[in-house]
Write a structure and sequence with these properties.
The complex is a heterodimer of chains A (about 240) and B (about 325). With about 240 residues, chain A is α/β, with parallel strands linked by helices. Chain A has helices at about 45-50, 75-80, 100-110, 115-125, 145-155, 175-190, 200-205, 225-230, 235-244; strands at about 1-10, 15-30, 35, 60-65, 65-70, 85, 160-165, 190-195, 210-215, 215-220. Chain A is globular, with a radius of gyration of 18 Å. In chain B, a hairpin with a 2-residue loop joins strand 2 (about 60-65) and strand 3. The chains are: A alpha/beta (about 240), B alpha+beta (about 325).
Chain lengths: ~240, ~325
């Protein structure tokens, strides 16, 4: 489903260059849930953003469902239709109601009829548990509700892959659970997911595989049991001892 | 309670200051021996215009039929040609059987006509409106070019904005009228509107650019991540939000535009300012007319700012 080979992303600032993603290679199979962990600034968000072309990269290949993002002939908008993304800051459209947030791209990008988009939108709102808020503007919702709307918005495009960029980091602690619950349900339904998160409990419970990144490098990958209880690398051990 | 008392006190002070200013102005005009003639002003808004009706050929009055306040007069000549006209009854100057020569007065009609100040106000309004629309379009396109990735578009946009903002509008109007207008054979109105639109466009471009850049990056990223192209994201996500934020500065810009439009009077477009100058020439009520002209500009700009205020409130539902 996702094939990443020798991915390299360099940020060039004034006089200094940062290798944000440094020669990362990995693959994600259909239906697999991969959780990316690592200290802040380790390049895990940048890595994730490379997967749907929000971040361009300098070297290597990212192949999504057979389409190589490094290939100039590939239409990035076609790739993105297949890859949903959920952001740390939700990024809901503040000038649209909850339902409009979910129907807009369906109509504009997928060309669905309004009635069809609304039906789909209502179904997804029910799924994430906020049907009664469909006419509200996002600023009237709590963070947890906003994030669930954002998940519904991404799902409305019928993506084959869902990317989560620290989806619970901006939430008040009491709202983390409701968002994680929706994500767990998605995982159970067999969605292919790549999740950047600091929620180690979620990683342990839901992930099929855990990637540990540090300083742009993919240091170690393995099953949650192996990574959390028996990390091979010293850096992984150090990081886990700080967060667990 | 105390804060209320204080408020009343301050309002009294405000009234006192305003009264002092008014009294000062009155006293000042007394000293220079100016006679205010406000009664001369209204006729330059609306006046009863008289139209004379004359016999079109030599002939005889064959019929005069009074009909209330009007009277219809019929004139015929030997060949049987008939001319009929309706005139105001009190002005009737002929009777049945009168022999007439071509050009003899039959009577007159009068009707209300817009005076020069009203016509000038109208010219100011539509010139401002037209140049506002073009300025908005120009500014929108330039603003988008200003943030485009393409260096040629960006360079052009920067050059345009810098040149226009760095030169006086009056000079731009002259250049448009004398140079561009001559080369392209433009009408003075077209030259005036174009100069104003291009002037406003440069400022609108900066407002649009700032408005777009004030929208968090995440909005564009969210739209793009849903598979929208850049134009789709602009149309559906960025511009509607940017519009809301730019409404107050845009309104300020259009209010400036209405005021700046007074400069086109310099290329002999009879807008409100030029109409005021002409009216002063015939009425000699210099002070009164300039005050009236100022009040008219103020009226137009306040209507605009009220309209924008109303729009802002309507758009604020999603805040």
């Amino acid at each position: 489903m996702i094939d990443v080979r020798n991915l390299e992303k360099i940020f060039r600032g004034r006089g200094e260059t940062v290798r944000a993603v440094d020669d990362v290679s990995t693959a994600v199979a259909r239906g697999e849930v991969v959780v990316v962990i690592g200290p802040s600034g380790s390049g895990k968000s940048t890595f994730l953003r490379c997967l749907n072309g929000l971040e361009s990269f300098d070297r290597g290949h990212v192949v999504i469902d057979g389409m190589d993002l490094a290939d100039r002939r590939v239409d990035i908008n076609r790739v993105r239709r297949e890859v949903g993304m959920v952001f740390q800051q939700f990024n809901l459209f503040p000038h649209k109601t909850v339902l409009e947030n979910i129907t807009l791209a369906q109509m504009v990008v997928r060309g669905r009829k309004p009635a069809e988009a609304v039906e789909k939108g209502r179904k997804l709102l029910k799924k994430v548990g906020i049907s009664q808020k469909e006419g509200e503007y996002p600023n009237r919702l709590s963070g947890g509700q906003q994030q669930r709307v954002a998940i519904a918005r991404a799902l409305a495009m019928d993506p084959k892959i869902m990317l989560f960029d620290e989806p619970t980091s901006a939430l008040d602690p009491e709202m983390v659970g409701e968002v994680l619950e929706v994500m767990k349900q998605l995982a159970r339904e067999g969605m292919t997911m790549v999740v950047v998160t600091h929620e180690m409990g979620f990683a342990r419970e839901v992930a099929d595989r855990v990637l540990f990144m540090d300083a742009g490098k993919l240091v170690e990958e393995g099953t949650p049991e192996q990574i959390f209880s028996d990390p091979k690398e010293e850096r992984t051990r150090l990081f886990l001892s700080q967060v667990l | 309670m105390t804060s209320n008392r204080h408020k009343v006190l301050w309002q009294l002070l405000l009234a006192f200051i305003l009264l002092t200013v008014a009294a000062g102005m009155w006293g000042a005009t007394k000293r220079i021996d100016y006679t205010w003639r406000w009664e001369r002003v209204p006729q330059y808004f609306l006046y009863l215009g008289e139209e004379l009706h004359k016999a079109p050929f030599d002939g005889r009055v064959t019929a005069v039929a009074p009909r209330g306040k009007k009277a219809s007069v019929q004139v015929s000549d030997e060949t049987g040609e008939v001319f009929a006209v309706e005139i105001d009854a009190p002005s009737l100057a002929v009777a049945v059987g009168d022999e007439l020569f071509e050009g003899d007065l039959l009577g007159s009609t009068s009707s209300w006509k817009a005076g020069p100040l009203a016509r000038g106000l109208w010219t100011t309004i539509w010139i401002s409106f037209l140049s506002g629309i073009f300025g908005l379009l120009l500014g929108l396109v330039t603003g988008l070019c200003r943030i485009a990735k393409n260096p040629a578009l960006r360079g052009l946009a920067v050059l345009y904005v810098e040149v226009v903002r760095g030169t006086p509008l009056l000079v731009q109007i002259f250049i448009f009228y004398f140079f561009v207008g001559t080369v392209l054979n433009l009408d003075r109105i077209v030259a005036g509107v174009a100069a104003l639109a291009i002037f406003a466009g440069a400022y609108v471009a900066e407002i649009v650019r700032a408005g777009i850049q004030s929208i968090p990056r995440g909005q564009m990223e969210a739209a793009r991540s849903l598979g929208m192209s850049v134009p789709q994201a602009m149309i559906h996500i960025i511009l509607p939000q940017a519009f809301k934020r730019t409404l107050p500065p845009l309104a300020g810009q259009f209010i400036s535009l209405i005021k700046d439009s007074s400069l086109v009077s310099i290329i002999a477009i009879t807008d409100l300012t030029k109409a005021g100058r002409e009216v002063i020439g015939s009425s000699f009520a210099t002070f009164e007319i300039w005050f009236v002209v100022a009040a008219l500009y103020l009226m137009v700009t306040s209507v605009l700012s009220q309209a924008v205020f109303w729009m802002e409130r309507r758009l604020a539902v999603s805040d």
